Amino acid sequence: MRQRLPVVLFAVVMAIVPFVPGMPPFWIVLSDNIGLSALVAMGLVMLTGVGGLTSFGQAAFCGFGAYTTAVLTTAYGLSPWLTLPLSLLVSGVFAVALGLITVRLSGHYLPLGTLAWGLGLFYLFSKLEFLGRNDGISSIPPLAVGSLKMIGPGTIYFAIWTAVILCALLTMNLLDSRTGRAIRALRRGHVAAEAFGIHPPRTKLLVFIYAAVLAGLSGWLYAHFQRAVNPTPFGVQTGIEYLFVAVVGGAGYVWGGVLGAAIVVVLKEILQDYLPYLFHGEGQLETIVFGMMLVLLLQLAPDGVWPWLIRRLPARADRKRTDPSLVLPPREKTGAGSDALLRVDHARKQFGGVIAVNDVSFDVRAREVVALIGPNGAGKSTTFNLITGVLPASGGTISILGKVVQRATPQAVTKLGIARTFQHVKLVAEMTVLENVAIGAHLRGSAGALASLLRLDRDDEARLLTEAMRQIERVGLSAQAYSLAGNLSLGQQRIVEIARALCADPMLLLLDEPAAGLRHLEKQQLAHLLRELRNSGMSVLLVEHDMGFVMGLADRVVVLDFGTRIAEGTPQEIKSNPDVIRAYLGAAT
Amino acid sequence: MLFLLQDGITNGAIYALLGLALVLVFAVTRVILIPQGEFVTYGALTYATLASGQVPGTARLAVVMGIAAFGLDLVKRRRTLHVALIGRSLAINILLPVAILALTSALAGKQTPIAIDVLLSLLIVGAIGLYLYRIAFAPIAHTSVLVLLIAAVGCHLALQGIGLVFFGAEGQRGPPLSNTSFTIDPLRFTGQSIAVYAVTLALIAALWLFFGFTLYGKALRATAVNRLGARLVGIRTAMSGQVAFLLAAVIGAISGILIVPITTLYYDTGFLIGLKGFVAAIIGGLISYPLTAVAALLVGTVEAFSSFYASNFKEVIVFALIIPVLLLRSLAAPAVEEDQD
What we know:
The structure holds 2 protein chains of 2 kinds. Chain A is of the alpha/beta class.
């Protein structure tokens, strides 16, 4: 509760504001507008800042919310409170439909798509007969509690700001949870997220719906605040402005959305008041200043105002409580006694005419460290990608615990008990080490988004974090648990990746060049850690270039060259194998 | 029926030009050029203003933007200032727009041939495009596509607002490039629509030749593929960006000049026209020139038919075209991402 104290203080301040004597009524109207805009911006923070999905179409979702209640209250006489869930539902349903189409798109297609349907929906609003075409719908009833009708801006103020503060709390809850970590993991790319059981399209759709519902709520409030709706505020221009709000405030921060809304709404008001005096031109001068400021802001302060402000406040380290008594049940391990954990049988991968992996076979047994070595371009990483389901094999079979996995997704492979690290470290730099490692335990938790929103996930969450902490201690990084992952040295980041993989409670650990970039002492520690893991019953398959490291550690070594297995055996045998020597040093003839 | 098709192809040719410019800019700079529509408006309305014998505000805008670009050049290169560098920057950023403004002012009020008006419009808008890249995009050229996209939206807002100040809220029409017309039963061809076809074809061919067969075009393509690599082999990537924007601005202005005799243009019309070019460019995947051109013709035709049969929902239908395309693209989305290092 302690970390929510600033929010409570803020809520108290906002509750007192209307009662301050001499408060100009116009400021209350501005506050209402700020609140409405903040709701949409908060959704955009989740969508754009946290999830990395840019949308120019949020205003259209406000439109769904606003028009739903406008039609239902005027044409069918429903109570506004009844239409609230319906407004949210309509926004959400349209978000599902549009989201299914768009969230799978990579990078810039998504914002362009949102621009296109944002425009299309605007024209739809302005042409449909039952939405009143360009004139819209007027005489919408006000919100009412008992006999109190929220007609003036001073009364609906409380409805709007209650919504803002509640949604901010919900959003903060969501961010600080298993689902929140999954959303934040998306920014660093899909491969790492998928390797720990996160479904990127599903997670993106979730954020998309969440942002749309917040926008729908804003639209519902707007309809009952203005008591009339028309298509203008739901066009792309407004959608762009919402994005501007989020960028100004700080797209990665919940309160950045609120701050951005305050800055933009007030600034707009000032500009509209004074610009015509400065340049006696006609209309829309504020958009010129807006546009220029947006460009300038991206050049000077791409993170927004909120983080800049926060840096100037005394730092409050947000230490999560972990309780050592909480134990995450180990995952069910089947077939531990079978002969091979992993069997690669004539695996083959072709990229067009290039055969990257040419009928490679080997297996990894329980309690065994197997090293996959070979010169650059030998097909080691591709073999890894075949095993982990990142790439589909062109031929051959890969079986895990005697079960043939054909075209398995990365998530399914992780479920079977294989966890991996990456050659190029894939951590979320803006998250703490603890949170990064907890992503590894994603599949071992069960709390969903709804539970996270309402904080019903605390048991589950504490277990996950405790497990993450345990793995961090195991790899010897306890001192850095609360540092941001991006601030660690490369060597430490590699160790964090191992802790993250361990968090998935695997039977087989796949390490892609774990010793690259490590100092000598760090390598010794890593070797020590891997031996310990083996002694505790885990198997390790690693790709590595450092021969000293490999030969001192591996039980067996598999050598690849040009996609083909040229040797397999104990380190001693490999060292004296003429084929291997030829591959590495060239022919001795 | 046939006249709808003809109408669609005329519109489609314009969208094709814009779509090509969008693909060009995206390929070279990774900027999704939302302000493309403003280039159209600026070109069209500058031309119309010149033809009515006045000095367009855009000529002054070019001077102001040139000064800003010069200032940025000086600040950026403050450690390595040579006389030659300053001179070059001064010539491009200050002398050029001032000369254009002087020429425009000198010719104002006189009866000038249409060709001069066209040329001046292209010069003015081209200069604006050049400086726009220098001011807004060059400093953030290394950032993500999304940041560039948001900046592009900012530029669109600013330029559209400025357009309102310069040209007012009233729509304008410009004089046609040619008044001839002839009829091939049942269709009537105006000189203007022939000009639209001819210019579009010529520009497509020119772009194809430029990118396929000239060293400079190849350098631009190399920049698109890998900025760092291009710089390492000695291509000046900032220069490529400016050239791409210059080309896009000129193409936009040409499109504007081609349509302003046919339809009345307002300060904000360009945005919609540009977005339809976008629909085409997206169908072409922002990569393929021929596919974009074909898609643009499709967009134009769909627009012509829907404005005839369901005029209320014309825009809805055109922008809904993008949905099946996005759907297809999402089904074919690549499975493996590249490392973003």
